Fold these 2 entries.
Entry 1:
Amino acid sequence: MSYGNNRDRTGILGRDNEGWRSLWTLETISRTAVHRSGMVVRITRLPGNPTRDHLTLEHPVDVDVSGWELGEIAEEAMALWMEGSFERGEMSPGST
């Protein structure tokens, strides 16, 4: 049983049910996001090409895989990155 990120395999982007966003805490200054499972996603610039981003998933061994699916967490992180949620000045959906 999942703690809240269990959903059909149609993909993250374009889904009507976007409750998965409540599982993330975004820190735009440091370009990190922390998932409720404890997984940390950090966005850095590639050393050889500073115009490209590099996503790092930190602490995956600490995630309780009986309750969370690492693949889904990674998909959610990619969706947040693709929509620009890690960037300074961006408002996350639903924020005021």
Entry 2:
Amino acid sequence: MLFIVAICVFIVSFTVWLKLSLWKKIRRRLFPDNKHSVFNMLRDAAEYNFVGTSVNNSLYIDIVKYFCKKSKKFRHYPLFTYWLCGVKLVFIHKAEAIKDLLKEKRIIEKSTFYNFMKPYFGTSVFTCSQWKERRKLLSAGFHSTMLKGYVTVFNEHAQKLVEFLHEETGKEFTCVERPLSLCSLDIVCESILGVKIGALQSEAREYVSSLDRLSDMAMSRIWKVWQWPDFIFHFSKAYRELLQHLRIAHGFSRRECNRIYPPVPIFGRNITEEISICGYTIPKRTTVVVSPFLAHRDEDIFPDAEKFDPERFLPENSAHIPECAYIPFAAGPRGCIGRVFAEMEVKILVCHILRNFSLHSLDSRDQVLPIIKITLQSSQPARIKFRRRQQ
């Protein structure tokens, strides 16, 4: 343990020294209050007295207060600087400075702090280097013409929110953040995905609660500088809580379902050039068939493969699954382009169904066998008994 602590201290010290050295090289740019010394850095750290608090959102309250105070202090300047551990931050808080930044087309790369959000959101349109292509594809769905078509959905859910709030009138007070968030979620899902999830009317809101907590944890890590290195964060209580909420938000049970019943059970490739696969030479003009359905039943990788075991995809277990051992939607350049959309759809549908019904299958897995067509299908209709949950 002492060895790990010593390494951490060395890495942090070296990082601080390196950042400070690099910053001194540009000191001629003369930022406001730009004292290039360790004492200036320690002063900022001393002012950063809210770093350990997080009860009842006090961390975020103190952060806002601190930087409001800082902004007032430098109100005659377009920007000010701040040391956050070994990182020198430049805050711009005047319109002219913001305009100069945003009109600079070469400055488009996101801050490295966005890396802390990858476990929550993945390499989405907000953090991915291919953001231009993805934004171009997504922009069509948010064109003004398309948005006009969503007005009906907005009105429908606004009316539901009003009905919800009517029931709250008999109470002494109502915390409006949650119903507003749930109403927004309903609108987004129906408008973008075309799926009605009824989040506002549902009582089972574990998924939504996990998303809220994940958002809090992402921001908290940014301000708790000792959690920046992944190898330190992975030993923290916050990381264990993160895994718990990610399992709910990402749904590892869904992954096990896709392992046993992959949507794309088989696909082929035409070999255009002679290649070698595991020491075997595959000649040109050969058709190679890949079967995720079979690959997912490899006992060397998935012991007792026919058993439904969601724990295979817990982080500590999935780390041992080799690349391409789990490919429910194929893989590579020709992999299913709608994979993310399909996964989102499943999450929303399952969330909606389980919130409203209890399910019981009338047939065992031995009776409903999978068959391979273009997609994986069942040999006979799956009979499920639905019962409305008690509200």
